[in-house]
Amino acid sequence: MSASIFTVKKDVVEMCRRIYNHGYVAANDGNVSARVDDGHIIMTPTGVSKGFLKTQDLVVVDIDGNKVAGTTRPSSESKMHLAIYKAREDVNAVVHAHPATATGFAVAGIPLTQCVLPEVIIAIGSIPIAEYATPGTQDLADVVVRYLNQYDAILMENHGAITVGSDVTSALFKMETMEHFAKIMLVAHQLGNIHGLPPRDVETLLDLRKKFGIRSTAPACTIEGTCEAPPPKEKPEPSSPVQSNLIEEVTRQVMEKLKG
Ligand code: 13P
């Protein structure tokens, strides 16, 4: 890291604007942070739209959350951001957003862990779902860190998504890759088949990850070959002639009784 604090603040504001313009957040949702050279963290303020943020709106806190600079209050998810920086020395930026398709998978309880797209396998590896905990709590921070110790991108059950990176651009790009992947998986599912890459091809991609120096502790996607979409729900059996006759007879008797 060697960028000045002002450059990093400008990057945070630019990435927030992109998150908002992509539709990854609504209203005041989402939060972004970045660690700078002196170890301090630049944090988005709480309750402010990410689409209209200015550098002077950002807050600077130390690793324990004490305010160092700024006039606004830091994000209500500061505990989660700070816990991630404490756990991962290689991480200098955290993006939390609610991209609609990826969050749909988090709500449906379907993780994005299948080996189907080379770019996703290389850039991210796999995207599990972290269990639900109330936003803004230490519980949520603890759950999220448990996953981010191993992964760079996770879904948050019934909530949204988080990505981390060596800088704000890299964290945002992982969020973009995740949402794009979710859209493609949804289309493939609608078309009726999700064809997984064969394990041999996945191994080659994982070797490329190593070659590119991408964090090797991030687990690979689920190597499982072809994965069929779940079969459509069974339609109720049409009623048999005996059943139909019985229904007709009962209806006739009820009508007779009503007529008097
Ligand atoms: P903040 O405005 O406090 O950052 O909270 C937004 C959010 O998305 C909480 O999960």
How would you describe this protein?
The chain is α+β, with helices and mostly antiparallel strands. It has one domain: L-fuculose-1-phosphate Aldolase. An 8-stranded mixed sheet has the order 4-3-2-1-5-8-7-6, sandwiched between helices. Strand 6, helix 5 and strand 7 form a beta-alpha-beta unit. Helix 2 packs parallel to helix 5 and helix 3 crosses helix 6. The termini are far apart. About 3% of the residues have low confidence. The site of 1,3-dihydroxyacetonephosphate has 11 residues, from loops.
Name the average pLDDT.
90
- In CATH, what is the homologous superfamily? Class II aldolase/adducin N-terminal domain
Shape: globular
In the CATH classification, which architecture applies?
A: 3-Layer(aba) Sandwich
Here the CATH topology equals L-fuculose-1-phosphate Aldolase
Instruction: Provide the gyration radius in Å.
Output: 24 Å
Largest sheet: 8 strands, mixed
CATH class: Alpha Beta
Individual helix count: 8
Strand content: 5-15%
Which H/E pattern describes the elements?
Answer: HEEEEHEHHEHEEHEHEH
The helical percent reads 40-55%
Low-confidence stretches: 225-233
